[in-house]
Write a structure and sequence with these properties.
By secondary structure, the chain is an alpha/beta fold. The chain is built from eleven helices and 18 strands. The protein binds pyridoxal-5'-phosphate (PLP).
Length: about 350
Amino acid sequence: MSRPLVATIDLDALGANLRLVRQWAPGQQVWAVVKADAYGHGLYRSLPGLAQADGFALVEFDRAVRVRQAYPEHPILLLEGAFDQHSTSLAVEHGFELSVHDEQQICWLETLPGPRTLKVWLKFNSGMNRLGFTQAAFRLAFERLVACSVVDRIGLMAHFANADVPGGIDDALNRFERATDAIPGQRSLANSAAIHDDRTHVGWVRPGIALYGASPFADRSARSLGLVAVMRLESKLIGVQSLLPGDCVGYGSIFRAGRPMRIGIVACGYGDGYPRSAPTGTPIWVGGKRTRIVGRVSMDMLTVDLDPVPEAGVGSPVQLWGDKISVDDVAQSAGTIGYELLCRLAPRVPVRVHGSATVNP
Ligand SMILES: *Cc1c(COP(=O)(O)O)cnc(C)c1O
């Protein structure tokens, strides 16, 4: 019998989240962001759930080539653009759209002959100071792109450092508007958090995390936003211990029972991608009820308090995160964000795909 830990990817939930994003941003075109192996959900298995998106955006060049093979008609955007001269030429060959965020990338484009087939997205540095041209350099970069023999269309793009806090995009949006005033072309501004501000509805939106059913905000749950979890990480109890007052659990003996209690042993640990930093108290769902983990997470196992579920025993179902326990809640307990936990699902965890995702509403 196989180890009971399984991740289930719900393609219908992906489709539902995409439809919800379209309601948030009516009339906008949607890049489904599928970088980092579709946020840990598996790129190729996730694409069918997102086939109704207007395009796919990612950063991995090799992955983009395979997305192109599977979806010859979808626009594909490389969010970090090309990485060298060779990938610049290949991007043109494959018909990828390229973010252009650095002068060096323009130099690579300038060497290429026509015809004018390439769509680029000139990236504005709105204050995050990660990628993009500042206001002073933006206009010149635009003019150089116009002069490139291979460049057909130029979109204008920015990314926000603080879209998840109230008022967080005001300043960056002003800068973008000032820098791009009177420059023609499509616009793309919003990630999942920024989509909630309609000032960002200026053409294309770029949701990532929302599509996977997790929240981009620290203080608003995915459920309250109407999102549905796409990944369920589920296992079973493989052992039970009865503790007497003073008995400890796990490495370092960091949890000590203050009273007699039953402890369940779950087949899931940091070797599976569950965060070792999750402390006692982190929520988990066992045998139909919400309870908490206790003691230190080890590589293959973690331990849970069975007091709220006296009926639980070996074989009882456990959800680490999914529809019962939000990945964001686990992440918050562990001092990180849902994005990281989803991306970190370990290769050894078997993945099951659920849903048809072929339905067009
Ligand atoms: C990752 C990424 C996104 C998606 O961000 P979410 O917060 O996951 O919605 C959008 N735009 C760019 C440039 C990105 O790198």
